[in-house]
Design goal:
Length: about 140
């Protein structure tokens, strides 16, 4: 189980060429299990719609994409708060989700924002490094 940071999903929507797109393609193929929460779903929606000008999909296609991502994720409801813990407190809900879902990784393009997660037995890892470790790419 992993948690996928919003920046990975936005990157996948912006370009079909990178590791973020390949990761989300593997999620769609049900090869990667990921955790979501209400807070993360709302963040996905907010950030994706704010970047709609950088994404070559219609608003209805973007909403459909968000719905499909939500349908693929396993929903968890964090019942405790570790806040404030991370240097960017806006990311604390991602850590809380990773802890409650017993995720081993947070897949993110901003690993520096999650340096402290090792204290919980969780790693912050880029999509590319995650896919290399899983043997998907070399």
């Amino acid at each position: 189980m992993v948690v996928i940071d919003t920046n990975v999903i936005v990157s996948a929507l912006r370009s079909r060429l990178g590791a973020s797109f390949l990761l989300m393609d593997r999620v769609s193929a049900l090869e990667i299990e990921f955790a979501i929460s209400t807070a993360l779903i709302l963040e996905y929606e907010d950030v994706i719609l704010r970047h709609r000008d950088d994404i070559s999909l219609s608003d209805s296609d973007l909403e459909g994409y968000i719905d499909s991502v939500v349908a693929l994720g396993k929903v968890y409801r964090p019942f405790f708060l570790w806040r404030p813990f991370l240097s960017d407190q806006k990311d604390d809900h991602i850590l809380e989700l990773a802890v409650v879902s017993e995720s081993t990784e947070i897949v993110t393009l901003n690993t520096k924002d999650f340096r402290e997660v090792g204290k919980f037995g969780i790693r912050a890892i880029t999509p590319k490094d995650f896919l290399i470790e899983k043997g998907v790419i070399k």
